[in-house]
Amino acid sequence: MSHLKLLALDAEDLEVVSAQVQDAVLKIGDIHWRAGEKRLLIALNRFAWEATGARPRSFERRRAALDLGRVTAVKAQHLSPDRPDAVLELLTIRFTETEAPSGWVELLFAGGATLRAEVECLEVRLTDLGAAWSTTCCPNHDGV
After folding, report:
1. Which of 116, 111, 70, 108 is nearest to 91 (CA)?
2. Is 17 in contact with 93 (CB distance < 8 Å)?
3. Cα-based distances in Å from 36 to 48, 51, 53, 68
4. What average pLDDT is seen over the chain?
5. What pLDDT was estimated at residue 55?
């Protein structure tokens, strides 16, 4: 399976990126706000949804980087920087436009944690960083 390399410049593009990182897991310590560069960088282990039909009962995860550009502020709710090894499960990413083209990119995690990045415009990149590894666990969304 080839590596993903996606760029989102509008809300429709972001829906594609969000679908690819749904159920990704990461540690709080994998979130890096670089104010001077106007970047929010997040290393994560994404579930490879695109590979689920290839082999029954064989699933994959991939190390990936989520790069939000043009970020002017970051706010977190229910995320403690004092717990860098705490594991988060990413549910979705959404964009809310305020004054075009600026707005908020919001990352919603299981358990109610939220990360909000104020952006000058939407510029989100998702890049796979290496080979996939097998997992027997597939995220389950029954009852959602």
Report:
1. 108
2. yes
3. 32, 37, 42, 13
4. 92
5. 58
Domain that holds residue 89: 5-129
Question: Residue 139 falls within a domain, yes or no?
Answer: no
Question: pTM value?
Answer: 0.90
Q: Which amino acid is located at 75 in the chain?
A: K
Residue 56's H or E segment, with its range, is none
Backbone angles phi, psi at 79, to 5 degrees: -125, 120
Length of the chain: 144
Residue type, 115: L
Give 117's strand partners: 74, 105
Q: For tokens 């996606």, what's the residue?
A: 6
3-state class (DSSP) for residue 96: strand
Domain assignment present for residue 124? The answer is yes
Compute the average pLDDT of residues 114-130.
97
Beta-carbon contacts of residue 40 (< 8 Å; ≥ 6 apart)? 31, 32, 33, 34, 67, 68, 71, 74, 115, 117
